Amino acid sequence: MNTTSLYIKNMVCNRCIKVVNEEISKLGFAVEDIELGRVKVTGNLNEREISQIDSILRSNGFEIIEDNNSRIINQLKTRVIELIHYDPEMTGHINISQYLAVRSDTVILSEQAFLTSSRHHA
After folding, report:
1. What is the value of pTM for the model shown?
2. pLDDT of 9-24, one tens digit each?
């Protein structure tokens, strides 16, 4: 079955994951996967459904990120938060650039490579 990935701003802890999951589920959508900054919802959502989800998320202090550059920035921030708060023993023992490269989505890495390549050719 198809899924729709929504990138969400201001998700910084496990409680945020719980709230986002509960709110989206209350609207009748099935959450397939959720992590800090991203949720996968079962099905191809239309603009009205995404707007409905965004509205309930905004009432809880979150918002859907639609701009690709903002998604990349938010994803990188999320990975740093994970490293600092959920794996503090690794903070001093890992190259942060390598950690981000390993933990970031392939989509983000390819978009980042595209942005870097575009800047060099401009």
Report:
1. 0.67
2. 999 889 999 999 999 9
